[in-house]
Amino acid sequence: MKFFSYILVYRRFLLVVFTLLILLPLPLILRSKEAECAYILFVVAIFWLTEALPLSVTALLPGLMFPLFGIMPSKEVASAYFKDFHLLLIGVICLATSIEKWNLHKRIALRMVMMVGVNPAWLSLGFMSSTAFLSMWLSNTSTAAMVMPIVEAVAQQVISAEAEVEATQMTYFSGSTNQALEIDESINGQEANERKEKTKPVPGYSNDAGKISSKMELEKNSGTNSGNKYRTKKDHMMCKLMCLCIAYSSTIGGLTTITGTSTNLIFAEHFNTRYPDCRCINFGSWFIMSFPAAIIILLLSWIWLQWLFLGFNFKEMFQCGKPPTAKQKACAAFIKQEYQKLGPIRYQEIVTLVLFIVMALLWFSRDPGFVSGWSALFSEYPGFATDSTVALLIGLLFFLIPAKRLTKTTPTGETVAFDYSPLITWKEFQSFMPWDIAILVGGGFALADGCEESGLSKWIGNKLSPLGSLPVWLIILISSLLVTSLTEVASNPATITLLLPILSPLAEAIHVNPLYILLPSTLCTSFAFLLPVANPPNAIVFSYGHLKVMDMVKAGLGVNIVGVAVVMLGMFTWIVPMFNLSTYPSWAPPISNETTP
């Protein structure tokens, strides 16, 4: 038993050593550049899938192993680790830092929820819409982490309000009237004081009423703080619904923009590097392509989750002329109170919002496709200005525009300004910048370059060419299901980084527009809905304790099916004319019948 315990303790170390040794015969026996690159590819893939080493550390292995195996010189490998993608990421993180620093994200989320009302069905849709919108511009993880505390507070407020209503009714039936019904102002801060007030017998009221009220309050308290958190099954179902709405909508929203999630950015950089003559993937074209799909997936996911956990009751959803219930009043009061705490919109929020809008407009208008964009002003240098140029321009303004004056008191007691603080500082930017993702993506680019240089990509493409006899829709479906399955157990960036160098030559080998294969595969990489460990938003909502793994599996399976079906629908409807997918493009490499031994 002691031996097995040692194996368990050092399992990651043993996995690294045995992986390197077991796969070593591949380059030693075959002795070709393709075999040596395949060895490195397998090692990196296994380490990424098992996380035997941190993902970003594994991403550095191509920088070490390609020069040692003579596949690429060190200078060329190093240049792959910082590309146009990284400049775009820096600009986007500057925006995200300012949005979160000045609480603009919270104002947007609460305002959108206030607009849709407090009916549970519409409330969940409101949270999904606001979360998806924020996720278009912020990282999926930070969006889920920001919205979940608000959702948790609202859910607990609804449960507390219902408990108080029932306590009032029971008191009334016992021959007394409870005039102390009130909406909690704060779930955590003032709960104990309010509980004491409510459990005290009120002069002139019967002792039985006090006992009943006290009992109800004790039940509510034990339900909130012990293992039995919920008064009824419906309360539990509502908490599950709210949690999954946030997890899934933060992922779905990231599909919409090319900067919404790292997998979109990885695809864009890989595609533009491999097919530089295409110039068809930019912020505007991606948004037009993915926005309809994201909206459909979001609405169908909402319907599926609503039906799965609360049932889809049209009478309750469309309460024409009916007054709101006590629960709904409590929920609306809490959301309104949280919004009022933010106070009037501040100068810093206005400037951040203006820069955010300007950045989006510049992205859309750079090269919209149907008309000439502002990039035509630089026709002397076609393709030089990209989305990263816009991101850097706006990002630098966040370090320049004043946010507030810095003052000091002179010896005479006079307060004078001596400097100003910008919208964001470098330290704040550093705390938000995901350097691990930057390195991980760089490692993927280096891996793709190595596969190309060694001839492994061409060899894989030729071996997969018999798949050309299958219908295109079946190839797309197989690749989408493969990616969706793999991304449940591996990180999304690692999955797309690993598969892009394989899927690109596959499309070329079967003489299909590469976008036909790459676009659905990229979108499906984000469909990690089944497990808590599949992506960070899932883990965040799971940590609140309302969900079991099987809840997420049941709900996620339906959302996965919806996602893949909508992507397939899009690939054969509105996306086809956008990119002229029906023909093999001139910007892709011509067919080669050569095989590499």
UniProtKB/TrEMBL annotation:
Keywords: Ion transport, Membrane, Sodium, Sodium transport, Transmembrane, Transmembrane helix, Transport. The keyword Coiled coil does not apply. It is a multi-pass membrane protein. It is found in: Membrane. Its main location: membrane. The chain crosses the membrane at residues 42-69, 81-99, 119-138, 241-267, 287-309, 345-364, 384-401, 472-503, 515-534, 555-576. One of its GO terms (molecular function) is sodium:sulfate symporter activity. It comes from the Eukaryota. CDD domains: SLC13_permease. One of its GO terms (cellular component) is plasma membrane. Belongs to the SLC13A/DASS transporter (TC 2.A.47) family. NADC subfamily. This is Solute carrier family 13 member 1. The gene is SLC13A1.
